[in-house]
């Protein structure tokens, strides 16, 4: 088999980076529709899974859980970072987001009966996810499959199966945020089955769908205006600490998929260990919580010092970072445990509008040397 033949066999993406590519823009349009219906997807997903969540919680209530591995590829993997802290706080077990190929290839050797493996795949057929879960199950782990696709291997071959009521005709938006909400709901049900108080997170999840829809509506036009202003940027940086790395990584993924330009997400602290931002580089700074506030403030100061462009996503009422950043998006104050979901939404919007703005200018993917 020639290299060209092998490339054709393994290439999974049907669209191209060319300006105005019709297949890419078909999916760009679908992304717009899906990202504006994330609240509905979250609400329907949580309602539809009440019974299976309770059944899984009964299975796990008396089980000693030492480790939770959240396995996936792309946004399915990233989603684990957004819920990790909440799950660890509630269940008192190490929760690890693991890239599916790495898990299947290198990571199942330490799996045992004290491990819960949560595999996420929109299609329900992602081979590394299924392979890692099967290997884990053979070693005594409890395996739970989350998918948009009923009847898929992920939904029928493991003890736990949870159906995400979301579509993914465009690039992932609602399929990721609804999955994160579902993972949080799973932790809530397990905690309740153990007799723990999970009322705070239960209330936060109940309020989340309306909050997500409100943020999508509120930031649609600001995201469009910013995308038009930054349309010629070939590189965008995104940073967030702990669970807020997830919105940064989602935002980078949407820019690479839709726009399509270079975008790099990194944990907040890593900004300070390299010469990360150059003059003129745009950077989204995701800073919802008190825990990361001081370091986020220092990041905004450093961004100004290197003449970068800092776009800060902060809670309503925040003034310190807002006084330094070049642009500030104030989001509603919510529980730290659901903030990574809410803060992902404006970054989805920006990725979509960046694609539209660049297309209007006839811009495709950046090339080395111009």
How many helices does DSSP assign? Answer: 13
C-alpha termini separation: 34 Å
Strand content: 15-25%
Series of secondary-structure elements, N-terminal to C-terminal? HHHHEHEHEHEHEHHEHEEHEEH
Strand order of the largest sheet: 2-1-3-4-5
- As residue ranges, the low-confidence spans are none
Q: How many beta-strand segments?
A: 10
Please state the average pLDDT score: 96
Q: Could you write a compact summary of the structure shown?
A:
By secondary structure, the chain is of the alpha/beta class. The chain has helices at residues 3-10, 22-35, 38-48, 50-61, 75-91, 100-107, 127-138, 153-156, 174-193, 199-229, 245-258, 293-305, 339-360, and strands spanning 67-72, 94-99, 115-120, 142-147, 160-163, 235-240, 262-267, 282-286, 309-315, 327-331. The strands form two sheets. A five-stranded parallel β-sheet has the order 2-1-3-4-5, with helices on both faces. Strands 7-6-8-9-10 form a five-stranded parallel β-sheet, sandwiched between helices.
Description:
Strand 8, helix 12 and strand 9 (309-315) form a beta-alpha-beta unit. The longest helix is centred in the middle third of the chain and has 31 residues, at 199-229. Helix 4 packs across helix 9 (174-193), helix 5 packs parallel to helix 9 (174-193) and helix 11 (245-258) runs parallel beside helix 13. The mean pLDDT is 96. 50% of the residues lie in helices and 15% in strands. Strands 2-1-3-4-5 form a five-stranded parallel sheet, sandwiched between helices. The chain has a five-stranded parallel sheet with strand order 7-6-8-9-10, sandwiched between helices. The protein has 13 helices and ten strands. With 370 residues, it is α/β, with parallel strands linked by helices. The protein has helices at 3-10, 22-35, 38-48, 50-61, 75-91, 100-107, 127-138, 153-156, 174-193, 199-229, 245-258, 293-305, 339-360; strands spanning 67-72, 94-99, 115-120, 142-147, 160-163, 235-240, 262-267, 282-286, 309-315, 327-331.
């Amino acid at each position: 088999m020639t290299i060209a033949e092998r490339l054709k066999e393994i290439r999974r993406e049907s669209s191209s980076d060319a300006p105005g590519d019709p297949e890419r823009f078909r999916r760009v349009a679908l992304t717009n529709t899906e990202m504006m219906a994330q609240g509905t997807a979250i609400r329907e997903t949580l309602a539809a899974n009440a019974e299976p969540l309770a059944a899984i919680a009964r299975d796990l209530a008396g089980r000693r859980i030492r480790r939770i591995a959240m396995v996936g590829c792309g946004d399915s993997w990233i989603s684990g970072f957004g819920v990790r802290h909440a799950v660890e706080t509630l269940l008192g077990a190490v929760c690890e987001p693991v890239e599916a190929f790495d898990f299947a290839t290198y990571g199942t050797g330490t799996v045992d009966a004290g491990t819960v493996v949560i595999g996420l795949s929109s299609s329900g057929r992602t081979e590394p996810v299924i392979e890692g879960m099967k290997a884990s199950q053979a070693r005594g782990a409890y395996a739970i499959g989350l998918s948009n696709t009923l009847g898929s291997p992920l939904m029928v071959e493991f003890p736990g199966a949870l159906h995400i009521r979301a579509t993914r005709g465009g690039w992932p938006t609602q399929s990721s945020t609804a999955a994160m909400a579902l993972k949080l709901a799973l932790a809530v049900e397990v905690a309740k089955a153990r007799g723990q108080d999970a009322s705070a997170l239960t209330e936060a999840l109940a309020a989340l769908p309306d909050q997500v829809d409100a943020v999508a509506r509120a930031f649609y036009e600001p995201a469009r205006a910013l995308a038009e202003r930054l349309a010629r940027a070939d590189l965008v940086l995104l940073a967030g600490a702990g669970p807020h790395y997830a919105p940064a990584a989602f935002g980078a993924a949407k820019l690479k998929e839709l726009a399509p330009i270079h975008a790099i997400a990194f944990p907040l602290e890593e900004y300070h260990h390299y010469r990360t931002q150059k003059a003129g580089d745009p950077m989204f700074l995701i800073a919802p919580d008190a825990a990361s506030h001081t370091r986020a403030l220092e990041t905004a100061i450093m961004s100004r010092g290197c003449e970068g462009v800092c776009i800060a996503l902060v809670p309503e009422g925040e003034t310190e970072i807002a006084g330094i950043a070049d642009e500030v998006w104030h989001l509603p104050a919510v529980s730290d445990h659901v903030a990574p979901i809410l803060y992902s939404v404006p970054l989805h919007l920006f990725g979509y509008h960046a694609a539209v703005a660049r297309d209007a200018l006839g811009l495709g993917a950046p090339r080395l040397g111009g």
